[in-house]
């Protein structure tokens, strides 16, 4: 947080000064029942409406109802707002809101030295302190010196504020997140309207809740004004973003919308077969709400049935999609191989989380890359794409569908927990600019004597024709047994199996000629290229920018296509002296590059269930440049 | 649309049928092809989906659309197809290992959902394709290569399992009884929703005469209980045996020993599957008197209809999907 100017505020707040900042990172932390995600999202939307650029990073406990007041029960929401185009949710919070001792304990280490700490003092009682493992009260023992602490008796103030609302009993304290939000709105000069409007819409059927939340929000705001909770308030001015209409979107929502858009662009009905799994379930939820787009969502009995039903829907002529996370992808593996063998178009979404096994279901990792490429039996190649940010998930979903349909192949789309639940402002695309990705179904026999040849390939794409049931004269049988080229009859012939294996491989490899080349950003004449894929985009670009600001030359590139690689990738790699590949795994992309091109690179690898801090990537860049 | 006129040959493919000579599958194939030709179903609207096993080769021999898939998953794949294409007639061909062991989960879920697929379970009580291991319907104590001292797994009773999953159409037939099989196929076809047909199928290579008590000239008259809707359940030589409900279960009694009013009258349409389940429990294996025919044909809303209705409903309520509006639904702001 860099203070630039300090100005005296308007007359009503004579005593308080306003400092202008170019960016600030705020983290709200509390029990999972404290409404921190709601408060964070509301702050985010108000900031978006105000015109800041921003990025968010929610963090949930894996347990839905972890014991209240304990460290495992802490839920948090981090947002960075800026007056320029930022790329991540920030390394270190400048402001931390701690609703109880556990939230303080779990998050204090991340707070910047000298940062602002807003605490709900009434939660710091003996019981809660003990639950969080504090031997003495940090609010009193001097351990918070070095931070600017704003102590707020949030519970009694909330109770007082909502006493006339009609909300009773335990529900009264549920509004305290809005009290905290009101205080933040004052501290950061946020507009109040977006929040108040949201409350009114969201709780329209429960007027007493509207009243309680509005009162608590205003009480929080006024608490700031009247007590002058701090001498300085902060202003982050609107960012200069490209003109357009913006919305704030999470990756799961953008992905779901991308699938709907892809179906629209393909002129096909969308079928989404899925089994509930963190962190992919929100895609299912979003699509299930959109039945008016003709979307069919199928909540299957298990992951295997989800991919099975998706194969069935693809055979029937739908834009067929299944979504899951790592453990579910493992279960789908056999089904995906059937889709490879039958050469049916479908998209498989893997929202990666910490593994192996149940691992860290609510934390991000990039550890499924090799699994996505190779996690099937037999030689079963398929295209693999990765989204790089929440809004990018929209475009990647359409691109995955395009490739699936054009090349008659299953396509694997990788997202991760950071993209899925993180959000960023997104300049809305014009619907008319969506590509036409429709592919005609086969309607006429393509073989001699009016016979249909299901494996007679297109000479350019090597795709086989898509003839859907209901088409007279094109009756044919698909299956998992190896098929004879052209006729599609079952074949055990050695030469045919070789031919079909080669054809399937060539078909996928050939897609390289139909995808965007990898682009180099930054200094072309740099000696160092930082290459990434997936959700590390923000940290990598921000780190490179910081290194450049220090006078270094650095180039970056980001891969959307992990299989096949873009045709120019080898040339790009060879044009740099050094290559750094930061990944949230133990070096999976690096291994692929070496295998493919015999080019060595250096890794920056972390498997801790948390994203890269910009500083970590920056330090590595500086270290390499010093050599 | 005019009904096409077909003969059985129209449903045959140019693929050589590769079951062992004498296998019960041949008869079933003939019954299915005959039924389809007689029904005059447009063959482009028919899809056969199968899993893995001897029976699962079936789609290759039907000149319709078809997919020979992976072990146990046919009901799931057929569900996706039937849910997204309610205009099709989707048939699943599966076996006892395929449907009841590796694919047990998909079977029960397809049945409870009442998705419009017709499941033909060829039950030969053995693993044929993998050369003779005991299956989930093999009788207790069965000696096979994988159970040299006798199987210790209690077997499934497929009809009882389907009824337990509250399948809305449940029937049992015999490979050799082509008229009954064709009649049941037709009823299954007309039934709205999931249909489950267990077909006792002789595997003359690995489990010959498993159903001899129902098919043998001598035995069958004593053991075959033909279920007829609306009629009292009687069987045996000169119909001297009857089925009654006593002590909370179905029992076989001498007809002469009971008041005729006590004899159970078969009703396929009972909304509650309890009595059908009791009938299914009359035999296990099958050993002794065993009901054959339609156990249950009770109406219930189908999955694909409910799914389609929700789409219509959503469109009436919120209008047909407008992509531009969707992208703006989370609130927007303008940057000049
Ligand atoms: S092994 Fe048995 S079931 Fe399989 S084809 Fe031969 S006889 Fe038929």
Question: Can you describe this structure in just a few lines?
Answer:
The complex is a heterodimer of chains A (627) and B (336). With 627 residues, chain A is α/β, with parallel strands linked by helices.
Protein model, in words:
Chain A is an alpha/beta fold. Helices cover 35% and strands 20% of the residues of chain A. In chain A, the strands form five sheets. Chain A has a seven-stranded mixed sheet with strand order 12-11-13-14-16-15-22, with helices on both faces. In chain A, β23, α18 and β24 form a beta-alpha-beta unit. In chain A, α1 crosses α6, α4 packs across α7 and α5 crosses α7. In chain A, 55% of the residues are buried. The model of chain B has no long low-confidence stretch (mean pLDDT 96). Chain B is globular, with a radius of gyration of 22 Å. Chain B has helices at 24-39, 74-84, 96-102, 104-113, 158-164, 178-190, 212-215, 217-223, 274-280, 303-318, 323-327; strands spanning 46-50, 65-68, 89-95, 117-123, 169-174, 195-200, 224-226, 234-235, 241-246, 249-254, 290-297, 333-335. Chain B contains eleven helices and twelve strands. Chain B has an eight-stranded mixed sheet, sandwiched between helices. In chain B, strands 8-9-10 form a three-stranded antiparallel sheet. Chain B starts with 23 loop residues before the first helix and ends with a strand. The chains are: A alpha/beta (627), B alpha/beta (336). The structure holds iron/sulfur cluster. The site of iron/sulfur cluster (SF4) has 11 residues of chain B, from loops.
């Amino acid at each position: 947080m860099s203070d630039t100017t300090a100005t005296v505020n308007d007359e009503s707040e004579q005593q308080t000064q306003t400092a202008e900042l170019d960016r600030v990172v705020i983290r709200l932390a509390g029990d999972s029942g404290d409404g921190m995600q709601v408060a964070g999202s509301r702050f985010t939307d108000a900031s978006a409406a105000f015109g800041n650029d921003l990025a968010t990073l929610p963090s949930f406990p894996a347990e839905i109802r972890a014991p209240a007041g304990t460290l495992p029960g802490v839920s948090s929401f981090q947002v960075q707002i800026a007056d320029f185009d930022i790329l991540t949710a920030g390394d270190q919070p400048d402001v931390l809101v701690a609703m109880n001792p556990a939230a303080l304990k779990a998050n204090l280490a991340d707070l910047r030295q000298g940062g602002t700490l807003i605490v709900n003092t009434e939660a710091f009682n003996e019981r809660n302190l003990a639950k969080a493992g504090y031997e003495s009260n940090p609010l009193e023992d001097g351990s918070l010196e070095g931070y600017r602490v704003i102590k707020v008796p949030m519970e009694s103030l909330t109770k007082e504020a909502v006493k006339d609302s009609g909300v009773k009993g335990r529900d009264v304290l549920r509004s305290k997140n809005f009290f905290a939000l009101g205080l933040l709105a004052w501290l950061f000069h946020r507009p109040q309207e977006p929040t108040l409007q949201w409350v009114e819409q969201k709780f329209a059927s429960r007027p007493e809740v509207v009243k309680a939340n509005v009162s608590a929000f205003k009480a929080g705001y006024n608490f700031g004004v009247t007590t002058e909770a701090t001498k300085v308030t902060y202003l982050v001015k609107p960012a200069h973003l490209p003109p357009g209409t913006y919305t704030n979107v999470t990756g799961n929502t953008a992905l779901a919308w991308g699938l709907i858009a892809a179906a629209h662009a393909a002129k096909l009905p969308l079928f989404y077969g899925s089994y509930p799994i963190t962190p992919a379930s929100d895609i299912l939820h979003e699509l299930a709400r959109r039945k008016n787009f003709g979307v069919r969502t199928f909540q299957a009995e298990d992951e295997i049935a989800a991919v099975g039903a998706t194969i069935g829907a693809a055979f029937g002529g739908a834009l067929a999609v299944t979504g899951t996370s790592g453990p579910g992808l493992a279960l789908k593996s056999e089904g995906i191989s059937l889709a490879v063998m039958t050469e049916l178009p479908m998209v498989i979404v893997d929202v990666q989380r910490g593994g192996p096994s149940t691992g860290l279901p609510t934390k991000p990792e990039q550890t499924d890359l090799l699994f996505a490429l190779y996690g099937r039996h037999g030689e079963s190649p398929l295209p693999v794409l990765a989204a790089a940010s929440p809004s990018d998930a929209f475009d990647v979903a359409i691109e995955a569908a395009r490739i699936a349909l054009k090349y008659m192949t299953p396509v694997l789309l990788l997202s991760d927990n950071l993209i899925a639940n993180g959000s960023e402002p997104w300049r809305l695309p014009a619907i008319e600019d969506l590509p036409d990705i429709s592919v005609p179904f086969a309607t006429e026999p393509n073989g001699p004597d009016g016979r249909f040849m299901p494996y007679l390939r297109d000479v350019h794409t090597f795709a086989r024709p898509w003839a859907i049931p209901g088409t007279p004269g094109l009756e044919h049988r698909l299956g998992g047994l190896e098929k004879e080229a052209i006729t599609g009859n079952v074949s055990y012939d050695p030469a045919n199996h070789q031919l079909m294996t080669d054809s399937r491989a060539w078909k996928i490899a050939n897609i390289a000629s139909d995808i965007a080349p990898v682009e180099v950003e930054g200094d072309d004449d740099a000696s160092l290229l930082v290459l990434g894929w997936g959700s590390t985009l923000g940290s990598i670009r921000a780190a490179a920018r910081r290194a450049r600001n220090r006078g270094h030359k650095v180039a970056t590139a980001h891969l959307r296509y992990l299989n096949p690689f873009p045709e120019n990738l080898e040339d790009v790699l060879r044009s740099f002296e050094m290559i750094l590949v930061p990944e949230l795994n133990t070096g999976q992309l690096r291994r692929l590059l070496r295998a493919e091109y015999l080019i060595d690179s250096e890794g920056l690898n972390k498997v801790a269930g948390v994203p890269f801090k910009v500083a970590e990537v920056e330090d590595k860049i500086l270290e390499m440049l010093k050599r | 649309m005019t009904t096409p006129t077909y003969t059985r040959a129209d449903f045959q493919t140019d693929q050589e049928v590769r079951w062992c000579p004498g296998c019960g599958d041949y008869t079933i194939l003939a019954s299915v092809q005959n039924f389809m030709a007689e029904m005059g179903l447009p063959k482009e609207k028919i899809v056969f989906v199968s899993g893995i096993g001897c029976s699962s080769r079936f789609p290759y021999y039907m000149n319709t659309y078809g997919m020979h898939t992976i072990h146990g998953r046919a009901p799931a794949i057929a569900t996706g197809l039937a849910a997204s294409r309610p205009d099709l007639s989707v048939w699943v061909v599966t076996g006892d290992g395929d449907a009841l062991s590796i694919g047990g989960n998909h079977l029960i879920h397809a049945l409870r959902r009442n998705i419009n697929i017709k499941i033909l379970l060829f039950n030969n009580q053995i693993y044929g394709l993998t050369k003779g291991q005991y299956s989930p319907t093999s009788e207790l104590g069965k000696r096979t290569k994988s159970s040299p001292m006798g199987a210790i797994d209690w077997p499934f009773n497929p009809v009882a399992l389907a009824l337990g999953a509250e399948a809305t159409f449940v029937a049992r037939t015999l490979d050799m009884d082509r008229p009954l099989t064709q009649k049941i196929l037709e009823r299954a076809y007309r039934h709205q929703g999931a249909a489950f047909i267990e077909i006792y199928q002789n595997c003359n290579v690995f489990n010959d005469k498993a159903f001899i008590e129902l098919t043998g000239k001598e035995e069958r008259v004593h053991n075959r209980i033909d279920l007829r809707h609306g009629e009292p359940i009687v069987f045996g030589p000169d119909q001297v045996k009857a089925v009654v409900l006593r002590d909370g279960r179905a029992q076989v009694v001498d007809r002469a020993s009971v008041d005729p009013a006590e004899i159970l009258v078969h009703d396929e349409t009972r909304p509650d599957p309890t009595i059908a389940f009791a009938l299914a429990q009359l035999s296990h294996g099958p050993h002794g008197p065993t009901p054959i025919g339609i156990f249950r044909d009770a109406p219930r809303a189908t999955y694909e209809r409910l799914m389609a209705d929700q789409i219509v409903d959503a469109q009436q309520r919120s209008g047909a999907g407008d992509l531009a509006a969707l992208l703006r639904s989370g609130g927007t702001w303008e940057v000049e």
